[in-house]
């Protein structure tokens, strides 16, 4: 196998593995509606984040140090502490289709943040991919006469912007040397969960009584839908451009629709099937191109290959 073909195979494998994350996220809607107590969005956000984060911290026994303390706080807020409640607020105040379309705007936000933070000018191809992806999702989930709520719309857009900014920043900063995806995920889940804890208590009061179904639902969301899924997401960010990873989020509403049809008896029309094909096309089109690694990321990658070359990078950076 040639170097080029091996690289293409590795990229395809990374793409497929990272794409599992939004597919798993798509199960959240069905689990929430079928297993969890109603009208408790903040408590659900808290239960998704904090227990999983604490378990990962205990398992990996690695804590952030130096500048990674405040970086973890920023990433934890964007990817977890702000994103989770905004996501649930939009879901509770808007029809599911409208909330999903607003969430599908994340790649467009990611292109804007990449231009600001990474100096990566959005290509016409990627702008087209974002429009195609949103259009495909709209065909899948929107229904005629869908009602709009101003606060719900603002929450949906803010949530999409939050996860997009967190994705781009995580791609720019990378991970500290020697820290794996599980530890990195645990840092952010714990930071975001600690933000959510007082908010949930103030907004919703004491936790509700939980039966076996609810406990099982929260265990699934925490272990699979959050800890494992985010670890794959951040692993992909260390190997792919942030904007490419962001386009994979378009798979989440498609996954939710298929699960609703297969498990909950919801309808699936030919127009929805066409929308899925269009959204998938936008997702694949968004994988073309990529940003140049930042200086820090480049140095980290060199150090992982050759310690002698790492010293060269450090000297060059000091100069």
TrEMBL record:
Key words, A-Z: Membrane, Transmembrane, Transmembrane helix
Residue stretches spanning the membrane: 42-60, 72-92, 98-118, 127-145, 151-170, 182-203, 215-233, 245-264
Signal peptide region: none
Bias (Basic and acidic residues) ranges: 307-319
GO cellular component: membrane
Cell wall biogenesis/degradation among keywords: no
Membrane topology classification: Multi-pass membrane protein
UniProt subcellular location: Membrane
Domain of life (superkingdom): Bacteria
Domain EamA: residue ranges: 20-141, 151-285
Region annotated Disordered, chain positions: 289-319
Family of the protein in this entry: Belongs to the EamA transporter family.
Protein name as catalogued: EamA family transporter
Organismal lineage: Bacteria, Bacillati, Actinomycetota, Actinomycetes, Mycobacteriales
């Amino acid at each position: 196998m040639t170097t080029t073909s091996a690289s293409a195979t590795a990229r395809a494998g990374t793409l497929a593995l990272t794409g599992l994350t939004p597919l798993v996220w798509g199960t959240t809607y069905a689990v929430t509606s079928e297993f969890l107590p109603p009208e408790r969005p903040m408590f659900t956000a808290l239960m998704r984040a904090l227990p999983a984060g604490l378990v990962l911290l205990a398992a990996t026994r690695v804590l952030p140090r130096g500048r990674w303390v405040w970086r973890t706080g920023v990433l934890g807020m964007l990817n977890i502490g702000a994103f989770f409640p905004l996501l649930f607020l939009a879901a509770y105040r808007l029809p599911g289709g409208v909330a999903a379309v607003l969430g599908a705007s994340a790649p467009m936000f990611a292109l804007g943040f990449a231009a600001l933070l990474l100096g990566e000018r959005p290509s016409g191809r990627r702008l087209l991919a974002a429009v195609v992806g949103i259009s495909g999702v709209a065909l899948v989930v929107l229904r005629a006469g869908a009602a709009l709520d101003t606060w719900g719309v603002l929450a949906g857009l803010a949530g999409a912007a939050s996860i997009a900014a967190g994705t781009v920043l995580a791609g720019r900063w990378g991970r500290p040397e020697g820290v794996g995806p599980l530890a990195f995920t645990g840092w952010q889940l714990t930071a975001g969960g600690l933000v959510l804890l007082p908010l949930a208590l103030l907004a919703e009061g004491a936790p509700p009584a939980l039966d076996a179904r609810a406990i099982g639902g929260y265990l699934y969301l925490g272990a699979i839908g959050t800890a494992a899924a985010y670890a794959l997401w951040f692993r992909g960010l260390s190997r792919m451009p942030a904007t490419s990873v962001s386009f994979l989020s378009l798979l989440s509403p498609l996954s939710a629709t298929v699960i609703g049809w297969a498990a909950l008896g919801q309808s699936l029309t030919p127009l929805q099937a066409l929308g899925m094909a269009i959204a998938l096309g936008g997702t694949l089109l968004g994988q073309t191109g990529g940003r140049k690694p930042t200086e820090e990321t480049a140095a980290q990658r060199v150090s992982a290959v050759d310690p002698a070359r790492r010293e060269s990078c450090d000297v060059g950076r000091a100069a």
